[in-house]
Specification:
It contains 26 helices and 18 strands. With 644 residues, it is an alpha/beta fold. The chain has 3 domains: 266 residues, 2-enoyl-CoA Hydratase, Chain A, domain 1; 182 residues, NAD(P)-binding Rossmann-like Domain (Rossmann fold, 3-Layer(aba) Sandwich), CATH 3.40.50.720; 149 residues, N-(1-d-carboxylethyl)-l-norvaline Dehydrogenase, domain 2. The strands form 3 sheets. It has an 8-stranded mixed sheet with strand order 13-12-11-14-15-16-17-18, with helices on both faces. Strands 1-2-3-4-5-7-10 form a 7-stranded mixed sheet, sandwiched between helices. Helix 16 links the parallel strand 14 and strand 15. It binds (2S,3S)-3-hydroxy-2-methylbutanoyl-COA.
Length: 644
């Protein structure tokens, strides 16, 4: 074993060379990793004792893609395409041995290897679309040659992670190792390939799956039409369709050039800048202070859910799925039947929809105990009450305070709750937190975790750690009613109501929000609070109105109050950072991710313009538009909300 410096090592075992790269946290293909790959591959090609090469990663995952933090900087050699070209032209069988999540440039690197083997728990995928990009290292040209253009369109435009078993069925990988035996099985696989002595095969030379008669002539037009709604406003999906189109029309090297040109356009786009910003913003939200990652000192292994509401059951199931022991209490025993029925119905639906197997349901249902005696919660590390009556909520928290462990975290759900009032009524107020599980129209991933002055750092860290454990995004807020989501969006709803009262047709307001990029169902969500009964108004295309106001001013009248309210939240310490407000607006209310969220968007249009427009609106529509002190301060300093 020779150690090639801190991130790579080489071992040769009976003619099989193993190059291991270990660059935490996710083996991103930054310049140091690219250099280590370049040198390691070269060394093993030259080593006459090496007949086949295996590429492995240490740590939690195979290469998880290009280093996203490098995008804003000057590129450094060796560039990824050059490294991949060396791999693809390796004269010896080269096998990618993947675990964890081989994504983006990491999976594209695997596609330049001759063979791909993966651990059963591994996932592969090309998620660049979520960053406003496309696979820029050959993925749009090689994947269609493996799975056909139709499947490639679906996989790359959606950007989902594909579990190893499904990837094997699709041809995205060639073999699956035994769990925990990836290195050994990859070496055995290499030996079998050597013994077979078949000529080396490169994906770029395989054209059977992209032959004109192998897919419908109108495939690309049909795909665009079928996905128009989900692609609306985004730039990357359309570019991906063009790049995959090139894979079936022009020779491979020309297709690579086309892909590179389309990739460069996206990388320079404001949409991708916003989506890359959001990628880090969502992860930053998990950090409570500075760089401290949420790692609850009270490890949550058992959870109590009080109240068999739909949200309560949903969280119980998510906690069971995350491997936690769950106890659901419906103090109203009649309702206990409701909780039992809800859980049974939810699991039956999951099996019916093919989202879960009967075996998974059996395993998970064993983790959920149903009872009507809160005393059974004494072992729980964290308890969330989901009652819908404010007085009842207070009573439940006080009752739990008297019977559970002194270090159990007590969480009350909702965002109109008085977290402070609840906490001080308990014997140990430091462990009381608020949790607002946003039931947004699409993926309900957002949870606002509210702390008050007496909440201990341990309690809030544990609560946020629990939220990440169940696969949701936690954002820390202050205790003031409305937390962040409802505070900032109510500012928009207030102005929508006022504009309608002054004569702006609701259909126009909805059309402006729709054109800005809000999904229709989120406009319903906002309009439900602002425009009253959505259906009573003319269609969204109605642009006639009484009030002589231009569209841009009307849109700014709706959006800028959200920015201003966000600035006030930062002043009050109701939010930790501006990017948290963007995470909440995007996840909670469908603010288009390719705009980056209200605070990112404000920086993009320029805070001086935000301030001057607010003052113009204030002169016309009153004090609701008084600019926050923080905004004025930022403008005076030439500072921004989200640009460091
Ligand atoms: N670059 C830089 N940092 C990354 C990173 C990346 N690709 N992926 C993750 N991190 C950091 C992340 O910011 C966090 O840092 C830590 O790693 C753990 O991440 C040429 C152009 C791999 C599934 O889109 O999906 O390849 O907060 O908290 O929940 O065509 O990270 O600890 O300081 O998310 O276990 C394509 C993005 C890139 C994959 C792990 N690849 N990453 O999830 O941990 S573009 C991606 C993820 C590209 C090519 C193109 C997830 C994960 P910190 P985490 P996790």
């Amino acid at each position: 074993m020779s150690n090639k410096g801190e991130i790579s090592s080489i071992a040769v075992e009976d003619g099989v060379g193993v190059l291991t790269i270990d660059s935490p946290p996710v083996n991103a293909l930054g310049v140091a990793v690219r250099r280590a790959l370049d040198e390691g591959i070269r060394e093993m090609v030259q080593d006459t004792s090496v007949d086949a090469i295996i590429l492995l990663c240490g740590g939690r995952t195979f290469f998880a893609g290009a280093d996203i933090s490098e995008f804003g900087k000057a590129p450094q050699v060796p560039l990824l395409p050059a490294v991949l070209e060396k791999i693809e032209n390796c004269p010896k069988p080269l096998i990618a041995a993947m675990h964890g999540t081989a994504l983006g440039g990491g999976y594209e690197l695997a596609l330049t290897c001759h063979y791909r083997i993966a651990a059963p728990s591994a996932k592969v995928g090309l998620p660049e679309v979520k960053l406003g990009l496309l696979p820029g290292a050959g993925g749009t040209q090689r994947l269609p040659r493996l799975v056909g253009p139709a499947m490639a369109l679906d996989l790359i435009v959606k950007g989902d992670q594909v579990p190893a078993v499904q990837a094997l069925q699709l041809g995205m990988i060639d073999a699956i190792a035994r769990e925990g035996q990836l290195r050994e099985d990859a070496i055995a696989y290499a030996r079998a390939i050597l013994a077979e002595g078949v000529p080396l095969r490169r994906i770029r030379d395989r054209n059977e799956k992209i032959a004109p008669d192998s897919f419908p002539a109108d495939l690309f037009d049909t795909f665009r039409a079928a996905n128009a709604a989900s692609m609306r406003g985004f730039k990357a999906p359309g570019h991906i369709v063009q790049a995959i189109g090139a894979s079936v029309r022009v020779p491979f090297d020309d297709g690579l050039l086309r892909e590179r040109a389309l990739f460069q356009e996206l990388r320079a786009s404001r949409e991708s800048a916003a989506q890359r910003y959001y990628f880090f913003a969502e992860r930053e939200a998990a950090k409570i202070a500075g760089n401290q990652k949420v790692s609850g000192p009270v490890p949550i292994t058992s959870v109590g859910i009080v109240g068999g509401t739909a949200m309560g059951i949903d969280i119980a199931m998510a906690a069971a799925d995350a491997g936690l022991a769950v106890t659901v209490i419906d103090i109203d025993t009649a309702a206990g039947g409701r909780a039992r029925r809800s859980i049974a119905d939810a699991y039956a639906a999951a099996v019916h929809d093919g989202r879960m197997t009967a075996e998974e349901v059996a395993r998970l249902q064993d983790r959920i105990a149903l009872a009507d005696d809160p005393a059974l919660l004494s072992a729980s590390d964290l308890i969330v009450e989901f009652d819908e009556d404010p007085a009842e909520k207070q009573r439940i928290i006080r009752r739990l305070d008297a019977i559970v462990r002194t270090d159990t975290i007590l969480a009350t759900s909702g965002n109109t709750i008085d977290v402070e009032g609840m906490a001080v009524s308990c014997s140990r107020p430091e462990r009381v937190v608020g949790m607002h599980f946003c039931a947004s129209a699409d993926a309900p991933r957002l949870v606002e975790a509210a702390r008050c002055a007496v909440t201990s750092p341990e309690a809030i860290a544990s609560a946020m750690h629990f939220v990440r454990r169940i696969g949701r995004v936690a954002v820390l807020t202050g205790p003031r009613r409305g937390f962040i989501a409802n505070r900032i969006m109510s500012a928009m709803a207030t102005q929508a109501r006022a504009a309608i009262a002054e004569g702006s047709p609701p259909g126009l307001l909805e059309a402006l929000l729709y054109d800005y990029g809000f999904p229709a169902d989120h406009i319903q969500q906002i309009s439900g609070t602002a425009f009253g009964d959505f259906d009573q108004y003319s269609t969204a295309t109605d642009r006639t109105r009484q009030a002589p106001v231009d569209d841009e001013e009307l849109l700014e009248r709706l959006l800028l109050p959200v920015v201003n309210e966000g600035a006030k939240l930062l002043e009050e310490k109701g939010a930790t950072r501006a990017s948290d407000i963007d995470v909440v607006a995007i996840l909670g209310y469908g603010w288009p991710v390719y705009r980056g969220g209200p605070m990112f968007w404000a920086d993009e249009i320029g805070l001086p313009r935000v301030l001057s427009t607010l003052n113009e609106l204030r002169a016309r529509h009153g004090e609701a538009f008084r600019p926050s002190a923080l905004l004025e301060e930022k403008v005076a300093l030439g500072a921004s909300f989200t640009r460091g």
